[in-house]
């Protein structure tokens, strides 16, 4: 931040204060339990590129709306009407109280509470928010968080309405009608939000809920409850612990500069079979998250049904789930109908739990024939790098085999139940990252994303 920019910011502040009677309180408002709260305009915030300017622009817009009585839209004017009097109505004072917090490094969220005072009456009239992706240097809107489909917004709308309806129990019909209107599935209704470590928190100011409501209502929706609709990846240092959130990664807008510029990265897909494992799968996810890597988990349906949370954490982390049949039988010994049943039962379970239908399968033991290929209905994914971890080798030798045999376009085979699956991972990820590898899902490696799955394909590697 140059001296010039600092002084121009100070000038804007003075201008706002004089123009609107604007007050920036230093007392922080609390937003959820995460992170620390502090005042809006502290030097640390201003040093982050773009944040200070964005906040000032937002503050200026708010001040314009609330400072002059004629400019306040009727539906926002919740103050009691003054009785007719010969005395001139005192000018309103607008005060803002702000809180900022970081759910994880790289994401800064701001909540701005707006209070309006006329005479002796002071009420909170609005709340605004700003979510900043510091790495990308851009403000995130809900359109960056959800998949671009009306269905995504409808899902948010339904959950928000259910929560508000519960909070309004005992209120009259009019209050419920307003809640329904405030949560109707349009982006504008959900523009006031912040990101917590494990959830999106939406705010509904008094004006949107009307009636006697004088407080901001919060709706908190866990990421895991929005799984089929999210367009973000969230990684944790400890599974299920919001405070250990390592990153919330958004998809860059179309036309944005690629994150991995420079030399084209080598790509490799790590795959983990026979899970989910009650202890190891979460540890594998943590090792991947610590390095912002993803993998592909070929799960056995009969095991997966007991661990729906693990399936959901795999998807939230950005990793992929593949189908490894329901009973882990040798498919070459089954009838076409039995093969289809093995696959389909597992597909249905995974779709029911995560909202996503696997695009890949791996035949148990790697056994397949023409009949298996035809009956599977999904591309078969084998592997090109097999450390034979099932022989019980220690993590060091498994890791050494993988890095010695790694190649661009390769697919690595490991198994969740082996301890080496997560113990070898740190070394594999570190060494291969150093060599220029990027870790991708099998679908990304093979270019299958967004493509309708075709049967009759068998993949061992990309190239
Ligand atoms: Zn297997």
Question: Overview of this structure, please?
Answer:
There is one protein chain. This protein is of the alpha/beta class. It folds into 2 domains: about 5-75 and about 90-225, no CATH class; about 260-460, Alpha-Beta Barrel (TIM Barrel), CATH 3.20.20. It is built from 16 helices and 17 strands. It has helices spanning about 5-20, 45, 50-65, 140-145, 150-165, 175-180, 205-210, 280-290, 300-305, 310-315, 335-355, 370-375, 395-405, 420-425, 425-435, 440-445, and strands at about 25, 95-105, 105-120, 120-135, 140, 195, 200-205, 215-220, 230-235, 245-250, 265-275, 295-300, 320-325, 380, 410-415, 435-440, 460. The strands form 5 sheets. Strands 1-2-3-4-5 form a 5-stranded mixed beta sheet, covered by helices on one side. A hairpin with a 2-residue loop joins β3 (about 105-120) and β4. α1 (about 5-20) packs parallel to α3 (about 50-65) and α13 (about 395-405) packs parallel to α15. The two termini are about 50 Å apart. Residues about 1-45 and about 70-80 have low confidence and may be disordered. The structure holds zinc ion. Zinc ion (ZN) binds next to β11.
Please render the helix and strand layout as text:
Elements: H1 3-20, E1 23-25, H2 43-47, H3 51-67, E2 93-104, E3 107-118, E4 121-133, E5 138-139, H4 142-145, H5 150-167, H6 173-182, E6 193-195, E7 199-204, H7 206-209, E8 217-222, E9 232-236, E10 245-250, E11 266-275, H8 280-290, E12 296-299, H9 301-304, H10 308-317, E13 320-323, H11 336-354, H12 370-376, E14 380-381, H13 395-405, E15 410-415, H14 420-423, H15 425-434, E16 437-439, H16 442-446, E17 458-459
Parallel strand pairs: 1-2, 11-12, 11-15, 11-16, 12-13, 14-17
Antiparallel strand pairs: 2-3, 3-4, 4-5, 6-7, 7-8, 9-10
